[in-house]
Amino acid sequence: MTTDPVLLGIAGALRAESSNRKLIREAARLFGPCAFVEADLRLPLFDADAEEADGVPAPARKLAEQIAMADAIVISTPEYNKGPPGVLKNALDWSSRTEGNPWAGKPVAVMSAAAGRAGGERAQLVLRSFMVPFQTRILQGPEVHLADCRNQFDDKEQLKGELYVKTLQALMDKLRAEIGR
Fold first, then answer.
1. Which end of the chain is less crowded, N or C, counting CB atoms within 10 A of the terminal residue's CB?
2. Residue 82 CB coordination number (10 Å)
3. Is 170 within 8 Å of 140 (Cβ atoms)?
4. DSSP string of 145-170?
5. What is residue 138's three-state secondary structure?
6. Which residues form the NADPH-dependent FMN reductase-like domain (predicted)?
7. Residue 96: how many CB atoms within 10 A of its CB?
């Protein structure tokens, strides 16, 4: 008996109605049978003095455990001022402070959703550079840059545009194929 793979979704925005949250949920749907876990990035700001005094906080340890338990990870970032938001960088910083490297060797799909015409392309590029020290297996494409993101989902929170659906499906197929390689 085989079990469904664990797919961890990380939306780089805290808003409940975030287009990036919708995008990782749509990615999970297109990924196919899986145990989908959505990370909570409501973490304290990284502070080395606080870490030294109190250790890594429980929410950051939980995130690291979720990363370690995942068979594959999908991250979607908004673009704020040409880069990923601080909340996402903060989560990456905290995950680097736990024992070992929970990211090592994990297949990771990076996407972006933003209001502008480029769909967060610059933020995605910066996020990819942030991921280098974690030694993940970041997929090199197809790239998903969801432009005009607030108008791209239907009332069931599924993507409306056929090209976006095809591209995201191809990315999720590639991510699934990377599990266990």
1. N
2. 13
3. no
4. EESSGGGSB-TTS-B--HHHHHHHHH
5. strand
6. 7-146
7. 15
Report which of 154, 123, 125 is spatially closest to residue 140, judged by C-alpha positions: 125
Give the integer Cα–Cα distance in Å for 150 and 146. Answer: 9
Residue 95 buriedness (CB in 10 A; 0-12 / 13-18 / 19+):
buried
Structure tokens at 32: 């196919």
Cα–Cα distance between 179 and 70 in angstroms, integer?
A: 10
- Measured from the Cβ of residue 30, the count of other Cβ atoms closer than 10 Å reads 19
Assign 170 to helix, strand or coil: helix
Average pLDDT over residues 87-110: 96
Q: Is 80 exceeded by the pLDDT of residue 2?
A: no
pTM across the whole model = 0.95
Q: What is the pLDDT of residues 26-50, one digit of tens each?
A: 999 999 999 999 999 999 999 999 9
Q: What is the tens place of the pLDDT at every residue in 48-87? A: 999 999 999 999 999 999 999 999 999 999 999 999 999 9
| Residue 114 backbone dihedrals phi, psi, to 5 degrees | -150, 160
Domain ranges of the chain: 6-175
Question: Encoding tokens for residue 33?
Answer: 């049978």
pLDDT at 180: 80
